[in-house]
């Protein structure tokens, strides 16, 4: 099996699953170093109100590693194309998209290309740029990122251990070194930006930066918690915030 040619086989190859029978679809998209299982606390509750769609990014350890093309995924556009392919193949329109970490910007890019696919973006612990810049606190200096890349290359653990070392490193470099800030003004789908009060990956200030830059109405919600994975550490709090955001009663 080789890298994707067009949209053929994306739904199956990226382990797409749906739960529930709601009239509206909510898409849950994970971040680097994890897979769709990161949503397991939220899926049963959301399935009462939505058709819940989950899938794995091509860099997930659950996906055939031969599908990873370093050139296609050298920036976030390849990931965004995978997302739009899935939604097109399943005839999904006007969805709610919840993107965690790198998937926040995957959703933003997809929304600039195909706004018809989305009615609302929920950007969870996302960032348009992780590297510090003049007047911008991304959370990491170049020295810190180089150290991170070195540790990825030399010491695999957890789910990363099932990835090829070259895939894990290539993906990490594209995630942490890509600058997607210029995408934000072209996002014309309303969004809610959800951020933990203390996140070692993304500074709280990034959430407000994104709110100022996006091209559609946006709201920031700061969770009174710590960590980069609120869907795992405080799922009930996150679920309550999602229900309020999306106007769900009960």
TrEMBL record:
Pfam families, per database record: Abhydrolase_1
Domain (AB hydrolase-1): residue spans on this chain: 25-126
InterPro entries linked to this entry: AB_hydrolase_1, AB_hydrolase_fold
UniProt GO MF annotations: hydrolase activity
SUPFAM superfamilies: alpha/beta-Hydrolases
Family classification: Belongs to the AB hydrolase superfamily.
Protein name: Esterase KAI2
